Amino acid sequence: MEAVEIARQLVNERYPQARAAWLGGSVARGTATATSDLDVTVLLPGPPAPLRESLRYADWPVELFVHTEESLDHYCEKDRQRRQPSMMRLIGETIILLDTDGSGAAFQAGGNAQLLAGPPPLPPQDIDMLRYKITDLLEDLIGADSNDVRTVVASVLWQDAATLLLTGAGHWSGTGKGLLRELANYDATQTTDYATALPAAVRAATTGDPKALIATTDTILNLYGGRLFDGYRLSGD
Fold first, then answer.
1. Strand order across the beta sheet in which 95-99 lies
2. d(CA 86, CA 98)
3. Calpha distance 200→219 (Å, rounded)
């Protein structure tokens, strides 16, 4: 609650003209750590929005995302097309800090509705491209002659495999720890354990045992037709 009040005070001080504001991220989810920041999104009637700013306030690192209605709609659609719902989560999965005209609740509901609707389907050619990339990475992992090479390859392979799993199934994706959270969300609905199996397999691969990562990756590939090399063709524009 202290973090919520600090975020609200920040908005009131810096943007007295704000129509609405939301606190999202790990603080809103209840998963904050010692290094977490305050993810604050602010809705303004016009300039200086849109802008993004990083700052420190009351001993908290803060990420400020300042928008108009038009820029919120723009970035939500941009995230929908790339299948990574950053903006939708920043306004949907939040604590409302300020709501002067009902727009805070309306945009929060809209963000959650978009999250539930999911991303657009992944085109078949994009699925094949991911299969091809993952197949190539698997061959690199199998043929690696040092743990340094295994570490570098595994760090990329798990992310591409997770992206294929999620986007191929019509689920949201992400990057870094956001990708791991999306995997955990997928596991919760599918009774799978990829969010723990893939990191564990990466750790094993970096110490010289890539078998689990190869097997888990092949399990994902087989959901979409298996490894792809022979006959793959990509035409230019």
1. 51-57, 60-67, 38-43, 20-24, 95-99
2. 20
3. 15
Q: How far apart are CA 222 and CA 237, in angstroms?
A: 29
Residues 170 and 119: their CA atoms lie apart, in Å, by 6
What pTM, to 2 d.p., does this model score? 0.91
Distances from the Cα of 232 to the Cα of 100, 121, 164, angstroms: 55, 21, 17
- For residue 236, the surrounding DSSP H or E stretch is none
For 109-149, the pLDDT digits (tens) are 999 999 999 999 999 999 999 999 999 999 999 999 999 99
Tell the CATH topology of 2-117.
Beta Polymerase; domain 2 (3.30.460)
- Judge whether 90 and 41 are in contact, CB under 8 Å: yes
- Please give the Cα distance from 222 to 129 (Å, whole number): 15
